[in-house]
Automatic annotation (TrEMBL), chain A:
This is Uncharacterized protein. It comes from the Bacteria. Keywords: Membrane, Transmembrane, Transmembrane helix. It comes from Halosaccharopolyspora lacisalsi. The keyword Membrane applies. The chain crosses the membrane at residues 31-49, 61-81, 96-117.
Automatic annotation (TrEMBL), chain B:
InterPro entries: Na/Glc_symporter_sf (IPR038377), Na/solute_symporter (IPR001734), Sodium:Solute_Symporter (IPR050277). Pfam families: SSF. This is Sodium/proline symporter. It comes from the Bacteria. It is a multi-pass membrane protein. GO terms for molecular function: symporter activity.
């Protein structure tokens, strides 16, 4: 079997998971920490493959952008750890989580899915049967 | 009759009403196990979040915030909403297609279709049954505590009463009743969490004043590295995210949708609802810490009492009654999903894996549901050692056992049945072994290691390694057959 796009994605997931595991064993938290946005982005990219294992470039760009925003926010929270600053009553790093990462994770991530689904993935399901309505 | 008891009786009557309505509509195992594939996105998404947001999510997170600081909510809840987006990405379209192409009502059904491996099908059937009973046992125990608080009964009577109520409407209406009761319970949890946030924070002068009170006393309490090692906190977050996408109560909801258009907004609804209910633990946990600093609340010896102390002492009884109803809803919404998942494993998946054909599936599904509840009650009330072991088979075990075989297996043709069996066995055994060996003092796990996160990651790694090192042509061919349409289109393109 030749190496395809999914194989590469699974390989990247394996690398990120292995790094996180090593970090957990060795008490090196930055690796565990940054594996979170990396794994989220990789799984979103995998989930955006259509039934022919193809990506839609705009959808892929949207997911990668979301991933980059997450990595950036994680980086800011990390850099601000113990900086002594206060934002909204919280230490800066905690404030980044409460006032930025949490809302982005709650709203933007699912909106990215809605957009990718509407513009790309729903075409996979157009030939499936709809069920009678009961709601 | 006190207002609290009146509220609870109305709540119970509503649940019974839904069960009675659903009973008249359940004609087949498809109706019983996957709600006849009739759910719209709103009911499905609210039901999904409410089955994920269990009693632990409301009461346990509150206790951890009170004890650890704000880092507890970063570990366990802040990133879970993005897990709903990941779940919809990874599972939504593919499970919907499978559910329309095959008779897929459960996770073992997906495994049966994906892998030509009886051991994989059998091990997943056993794992989901054992895991469902394990979850149910924990929910029965929590139900006993809440019902006893409301009605002033013993915990035993409370557990039996609570379990009987969930069992009645689930046995009557299966997942059709389960999905709609989850929906009502989810809405109740959202409303109560918003109300609790304002009531709790106002008790100590509002959000800003509360934070000022805490930071003036101990700014460390609000830091990300307050009390627990950061490695532990972020490993917990990894487990929370990957585990969410691998919980049976979430996965089976994708098999219940009525049309593909229902997928689009589900992740947003579920994530928003979950995010809003996080306000409950966030506000009560921090408020209790501020009250303790102000000397208005004692330093609690048992942090599990954080939620009940606050509502017993700081809010009007009627509001406390609403909150208890909401907490009971959180517990019950997880319970009925696991009754249906466990029943499906017992009456459909296990017999199928063993080559046994079951007739009159609805009757057997009802009997199996009753059996799952009975097992959970017996374990919760009389076999504390079993409860201890079952407690180890929870979130992380499902994450390690299911994420690779199901989430990756839907995309990756190299995934194999052998790797599935190995990953499932590892997920169960690793959790049980670490629990038992730690409790017996045979091994000591460093404080920075979060076992659940570690087992989750190791489970995924083992699944990938075994799939690559022991490839299976049969599994790869089955992958192609399963996505038959894709193969046909590729041929046409060539």
């Amino acid at each position: 079997m030749s190496i395809d796009r999914t194989d590469k994605l699974v390989g990247a997931c394996f690398a990120a998971t292995t790094a996180a595991t090593v970090g957990m064993f060795s008490n090196y938290w930055p690796v565990v920490y940054y594996s979170i946005p990396v794994l989220v982005t990789l799984f979103m990219l995998m989930g955006s493959l259509d039934k022919r294992d193809e990506w839609n470039p705009p959808a892929t760009a949207g997911i990668v952008s979301f991933g980059l925003v997450l990595v950036l926010l994680f980086g800011v929270a990390n850099a601000a750890l113990h900086d002594g600053g206060i934002i909204g009553g919280l230490p800066t790093s905690t404030a980044v989580f409460v006032y930025a990462i949490w809302p982005v994770a709650t709203v933007v991530g699912p909106l990215v899915f809605a957009w990718v689904y509407h513009t790309w993935l729903r075409h996979d399901l157009e030939d499936t049967d709809a069920q009678p309505v009961a709601q | 009759m006190t207002p609290v008891i009146a509220i609870m009786l109305i709540y119970f009557l509503l649940m019974f009403g839904i069960g009675y309505w659903a009973k008249s509509r359940v004609k087949s195992s498809k109706d019983f196990l996957v709600a006849g594939q009739t759910l719209g996105f709103f009911v499905m998404a609210v039901g999904t979040f409410s089955s994920i947001q269990s009693g632990f999510g409301m009461i346990g997170h509150t206790a951890n915030i009170y004890s650890w600081g704000l880092q507890a909510i970063v570990a366990a809840a802040f990133l879970v909403p993005v897990a709903f987006a990941v779940s919809w990405f990874l599972l939504g379209s593919r499970l919907y297609r499978l559910a329309r192409q095959y008779d897929v009502y459960s996770i073992p059904d997906v495994i049966r279709i994906r892998y030509p491996s009886r051991p994989a099908h059998l091990s997943m059937s056993i794992a989901t049954f054992v895991g469902s009973v394990a979850y149910m046992t924990a929910q029965v125990t929590a139900t006993g505590v809440i019902v006893s608080l409301i009605f002033g009964t013993s915990v035993t009577v409370g557990a039996i009463t609570g379990a009987a109520i969930v069992a009645l409407y689930t046995i009557a209406g299966g997942m059709l009743a389960g999905a709609w009761t989850d929906f009502i319970q989810g809405l109740l949890m959202v409303v109560l969490s918003i109300g609790t946030f304002f009531v709790a924070t106002n008790t100590v002068g509002g959000w800003s004043t509360m934070l000022t009170t805490i930071s003036n006393h101990d700014i460390e309490f609000l830091q990300l590295d307050a009390t627990q090692p950061l490695t532990y906190i972020y490993a917990f977050a990894v487990m929370a995210i990957l585990g969410t996408a691998a919980q049976p109560q979430l996965i089976t909801k994708f098999l219940m949708l009525r049309s593909p258009s229902e997928l689009k907004w589900g992740a947003l609804v579920a994530a928003l609802a979950y995010g809003i209910t996080t306000l409950f633990a966030l506000s009560v946990g921090l408020t209790m810490r501020a009250l303790t600093i102000e000397g208005r609340a004692p330093e609690l010896d048992n942090i599990d009492n954080t939620t009940t102390w606050f509502f017993n002492n700081m809010v009007p009884p009627v509001f406390a009654g609403f909150v208890l109803a909401g907490l009971l809803a959180a517990i019950m919404s997880s319970s009925n999903s696991f009754i249906a998942v466990g029943a499906s494993s017992l009456m459909r998946d296990l017999p199928s894996a063993l080559g046994i054909t079951v007739r009159n599936e609805v009757r057997w599904a009802r009997l199996a549901s009753a059996f799952v509840v009975s097992c959970s009650l017996v374990f919760a009330l009389y076999l504390s050692q079993v409860v201890f072991l079952l407690g180890a088979i929870g979130w992380a075990a499902f994450a390690a056992a299911i994420f690779g075989p199901l989430a990756l297996g839907l995309y990756w043709r190299r995934a194999t049945g052998l790797a599935t069996t190995v990953a499932i066995s590892f997920g169960i055994v690793a959790n049980l072994a670490t629990t038992v060996l730690t409790a017996q003092g045979i091994i000591a796990i460093p404080t920075y290691i979060q076992t659940g996160g570690l087992v989750t990651c190791l489970g995924i790694m083992i699944f990938i390694i075994v799939s690559v090192c022991a490839p299976s042509r049969a599994s790869a061919d089955r992958f192609t057959e399963m996505w038959e349409l894709r193969a046909a289109e590729k041929t046409a393109t060539k």
